[in-house]
Design a protein that fits this description.
The protein has helices spanning about 30-45, 60-65, 75-85, 90-95, 125-135, 165-170, 185-190, 210, 215-230, 240-250, 260-270, and strands spanning about 20-25, 50-55, 95-100, 105-110, 140-145, 175-180, 200-205, 235. The protein is an alpha/beta fold. The protein has a domain at about 15-175 and about 255-270: Rossmann fold. It has an 8-stranded mixed beta sheet, sandwiched between helices. Helix 1 (about 30-45) crosses helix 11 and helix 3 (about 75-85) crosses helix 5. The longest helix has 14 residues, at about 30-45. The chain is globular and about 55 Å long. The chain starts with 19 loop residues before the first strand and ends with a helix.
Length: about 280
């Protein structure tokens, strides 16, 4: 596969016949899950009907992040019903969680309740679930695993260990590629992005002057352009609001103004307005 150099154009949400699908991907520790969750809240606050799906088959963490102590069977049950042709609105209501905030709501489908069941998250069922969710939602946000090695095979199942992440990353309309904005995180991103065979929106996370000096966003944008020919699509500042979310499960949208929230909001608006 080759690295493509331009960001993918998006069709307007209002003119689509299927839901806009967004994959949130990045190396472990990049903040992909936290940013993905906050992005989903922002998209919902813009008036879109949004479902957030935890499809990370290594470290499903969104239930804990959102303060859901009894997530239920979630994704594996949805996929089983999708394979059987029995997934409908009543099953969606039963297997998902509706998070109401201010005057809006976000739907959430929890991830694996046992990591041993990763082989059930297979491409054909994911494609069917996407089609079925498109009947109820305008935007689907997938939180996917960081690993994309396609040739890793599960010993017992004979399935490709990273089949879910690889499928969702290649099948989604937009991939947000998260990386930590420090020398180690940027270098790791340069290695990881070589595995991606599609356009992405690079998003720098935890941007701070203390690590990169003055004008960190400009430095990151130049480095990214020089090395990969990709344009930096977002730079999210280090923010105490993320710690507050971990402590209280309140997303940035409910914490008032902050530079991090403003940047996530800007990215959400770009997506919603067909940037």
């Amino acid at each position: 596969m080759t690295l493509l150099e331009a960001s993918a154009p998006l069709r307007s949400v209002t003119t689509r016949t299927t839901a806009l699908t967004i994959a949130c991907w990045g190396s472990a520790g990049s903040g992909k899950s936290t940013v993905g969750a906050n992005l989903a809240f922002e998209l919902a606050s813009l008036g879109l009907r949004v479902v957030l799906v935890d499809a990370d088959t290594y470290n499903p963490s969104l239930s804990a992040l959102l303060g859901i102590t009894d997530p239920g069977p979630g994704l594996t049950a949805c996929l089983r019903l999708a394979r059987q042709g029995r997934f409908d609105e009543s099953q969606l209501d039963r297997l998902s969680h509706v998070i109401e905030f201010e005057k809006d709501e976000l739907w959430f489908i929890p991830g694996l309740n046992s990591l041993a069941r990763w082989a059930e998250v297979e491409p054909e069922a994911l494609a069917t679930l996407r089609e079925l969710l498109s009947a109820s939602f305008e935007v689907i946000v997938w939180d996917i695993a960081p690993y994309l090695d396609f040739d890793v095979i599960g010993f017992e199942s004979g399935s490709r260990r990273n089949q879910a992440a690889f499928h969702l990353l290649t099948d989604s309309d937009l991939c947000l590629a998260l990386f930590v904005a420090d020398p180690v995180g940027v270098n790791r991103f340069f290695f990881d992005i070589k595995q991606v065979g599609r356009e992405v929106w690079p998003i720098a996370n935890r941007v701070r002057n203390s690590v990169l000096g003055r004008s960190p966003k400009a430095q990151l944008a130049k480095t990214l352009r020089d090395v990969t020919k990709l344009e930096l699509m977002g730079a999210i500042s280090e923010d105490a609001g993320f710690d507050e979310m971990l402590r209280t499960t309140r997303p940035l949208v409910l914490q008032g103004k902050s530079s991090a929230r403003s940047e996530v909001r800007r990215i959400a608006t770009l997506i919603a307005d067909d940037a």
